[in-house]
TrEMBL record:
Domain of life (superkingdom): Bacteria
Residues annotated as domain HD/PDEase: 26-113
Name assigned to this protein: HD domain-containing protein
Pfam family, any one: HD
SMART domains xref list: HDc
SUPFAM superfamilies: HD-domain/PDEase-like
PANTHER family attached to this UniProt entry: HD DOMAIN-CONTAINING PROTEIN, PTHR40202
């Protein structure tokens, strides 16, 4: 595990370098989307791990690409949830945070299987990425997913993810959530 200061510097750098880019087919930037998702988690009274997961759920989109493989025709990386989860795990974030990040795409697949109305509410960009992400779950996949220990939290992060696309919404700045990340990592080192 690398030093906490290095992880915080990496997160800050990724946000500075990539955060202003458009959030694939949506009317907000990557950073605005991340901040809005975290704000929704905060407003819901979530614990710090859930707030951090909401903030970092799309960190995989910001990581440097090693190749053009795995991209969704202009909609980001098809495996961003796994890349992000692995990246966070390697840096010492809790398994709860990692699970919420790794499964937010599975939650979309699950919700579109369970509720045709959910699919109808998805943005055009979210519908397009669903095609690259495996489409709707099968009944067997849904059954297994429902038994994930973080099932309820994963679905909630997904719902915030869908809502966090409001142009011009006032949010705390990134430093507010980066400090939460730093405190979390320091607490885990004790």
């Amino acid at each position: 595990m690398q030093p906490i200061e290095q992880t915080i510097t990496e997160i800050t750098g990724l946000l500075q370098e990539q955060g202003s880019q458009d959030y694939y087919g949506e009317p907000v930037s990557q950073l605005e989307h991340m901040l809005q998702c975290a704000l929704l988690a905060e407003r819901a009274g979530s614990d710090n791990e859930t707030i951090i997961a909401a903030f970092l759920h799309d960190i995989g989109h910001l990581l440097p690409a090693e190749s053009a493989a795995g991209y969704m025709d202009g909609y980001g990386r098809s495996d961003h949830e796994q890349l992000g989860g692995d990246w966070l795990r390697q840096r010492g974030f809790s398994e709860k945070i990692v699970s919420l990040v790794e499964n937010h795409v599975n939650a979309k697949r699950y919700l579109t299987f369970k509720s045709p109305a959910y699919y109808e509410r998805l943005s055009e960009a979210s519908r397009k990425t669903l095609e690259y992400q495996g489409g709707r779950m099968t009944a067997d996949e849904a059954y297994a997913f429902e038994h994930n220990i973080q099932f309820g939290g994963i679905l909630q992060v997904r719902r915030w993810d869908e809502q966090a696309k409001v142009p011009g919404l006032k949010t705390p700045d990134a430093q507010h959530y980066i400090q939460k990340c730093e405190r979390h990592l320091k607490k885990r080192k004790l």
